[in-house]
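Teaching soon. Invent one.


***
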Amino acid sequence: MYTSGYANRKLMATAATADQPQHSSTGLISEVLYREDQPMMTQLLLLPLLQQLGQQERWQLWLTPRQKLSRQWVQSSGLPLSKVMQVNQMLPGAALESMIRALRTGNYSVVIGWMAEELSEVDQLRLANAAEEGNAMGFIMRPVSASSQLTRQLSGLKIHSNLYH
């Protein structure tokens, strides 16, 4: 599995006073490329994070193209059934705009959306800004075939952050 993360951290106002300390941002967008014939690998990586985010007061939003989440799977995975929302039957073009709107609201700790194609830099930036604004995490799930992974880097993590630049 190959993952790439896009973090966008806005610079806070430079004139922070003792009464108004600067706060670091926690908005984050990450893209997860996965093989549909190996769903357990993705679950092993994402479930602990989703379980931790489930402890927040906010919702988790799943924007899925076809499949419907199983109540039994949500409960057995340790996710809070009462905080998981799903919108399925999303058209590919609508998923991006829905993710941006949902991230921006701040009502969700995480928004997970399935995208068939790689996003442009502009769309990645729009998502990162929305996640920043809503103080939320977004996961772009993108399935790849086993044959296309042979031509890609075998594994890696690419996180853009101003902490290391």
About this structure: The first helix runs from residue 39 to 53.
